[in-house]
Design goal:
Blueprint (H helix, E strand, L loop, with lengths): L8 H13 L2 E5 L3 H12 L4 E5 L2 H11 L3 E5 L10 H10 L6 E5 L4 H9 L4 E4 L4 H31 L23 H13 L6 E4 L6 H10 L8 E5 L8 H6 E2 L11 E2 L1 H4 L4 E5 L9 H10 L1 E3 L6 E3 L3 E6 L3 H6 L5 H7 L2 E4 L7 H18 L6 E2 L1 H9 L5 H15 L4 E2 L1 H4 L2 H4 L10 H15 L4 H8 L3 H10 L10
Parallel strand pairs: 1-2, 1-3, 3-4, 4-5, 6-13, 6-14, 7-10, 10-13, 15-16
Antiparallel strand pairs: 8-9, 11-12
Helix pairs in contact: 3-4, 14-16, 19-20, 20-21
Length: 486
Amino acid sequence: MGYLANPFYFLQELILSIKKNGATILIADDDDDIRLALELLLMAHGYRIIEASNAKEVIIQVERQKPDLILLDMNFSRDTTSGQEGLDILNQLNKSAIPVVLMTAWGSIELAVNGLKQGASDFIEKPWNKEKLLNSIQQQLSHSKLKQEHQGYRQLLSNRQFSSKQSTDNLSTGNVSNWICQSSPMMAIENLVNQIAPTDANILILGENGTGKSLLAQRIHQLSARHQEPFIAVNMAAIPDALFESELFGHQKGAFTDAKQNRVGRFQLADQGSLFFDEIGSLPLTLQPKLLRVLETGQYEILGSSQTQFADVRIISATNADLTQNVNDGAFRQDLLYRLNTLVITMPPLRERIEDIQPLAENFIHLFSQKYHKSNLTLSISALDKLKRHSWPGNIRELSHVIERAVLLAVTDELNEQQLLLDNIDNSANSVVLQPLEQAERQLIEKAMTVTCGQVIEAAKILDISRNALYRRLEKFNMNVSINDG
């Protein structure tokens, strides 16, 4: 049945279309013909239309009707070409969070950029291309719906970021409320963090595996002006190359074969908050330009959408790799490194944090006692001495595992050195006994002289010092060793 056979056919189809779509669009333009043309076009595609012919009406309609999208003319009665009147209205609308598509018959790149910078979602020139206009409206409505859908999740994520997110998998570094910095290296880091955390500078955290780089990243976020917004962590080594853009930027339903529903990207989840790139050194070279672009411009596109989005996030990165060497080897882009390392913090290994071992161990005892339903566990003096003499190649993560094992094996209220099970490790050839530096130096010289049968030249080569330097040390320590200067 067509329009001629049934004069109410068009009206019926229009009503069904409106019910199916349901979105309300405010057309703000001082030209009656423009408003009428847009009304007919958009109603034919199922949109509900409200109108405003001046700036005052725009604000009134927004407050009363709460439209889903606004088509805003750039020039009303005040002038005809500058677009300033439209920008003034746009500034008043920014708090409403309603997507705004700007319109003008005097389009220019500069005007478009100004509008987008001030919060507009898109920019359309008059006379408009119908398909382009409809596509833009649909994209903005879809994006607005996507933002609304994940607002609840972002709020939940923000509330739980420093509590339930800390699972047993993250016990290797405790939680951010138990940040420990009693040693001199950690006190220096804490002073630096207090100075730089309130800024938005990008920070690169270096250090061995297990030193607590992710905990430091959370500490920085906690002390920043963004602390009430989400802290989103991404393990860059765990993202498959094919899903890199979807993971970071999100995708729309149907963007690719397996995109069965919309996905919010990490940049959007972290909006106004902090985004932590862990294992940044493992990012493949082929993917680095995609990350570099958003770090340089703040711009990205959701997969399946041509609309450019803007990211307002603070970037914190971490790696145990030597990125400078990676740059020299051609495995890491130098310009990307410059975007990441505005400020660099190096986490010290646990063997350089002897004063922190006891409070860290006691913290882990408390955590694992709760996990395994044990109480009143303490650390014996001999066990603590054992912990302090261990070299800790696995750093805090290794300490966590050692304490967890000891808690499981505990049969009394006191953890002893046998329950630490560190004997085999301490007796290995790679273990280093902590002792005064002069004492260690003396032992090395004695061993070198013994191995070389007192040949100073050979002993100096082993120690990588000059013969004269070795003589000075022999005299310094008044060492009675057999010397062969040949």
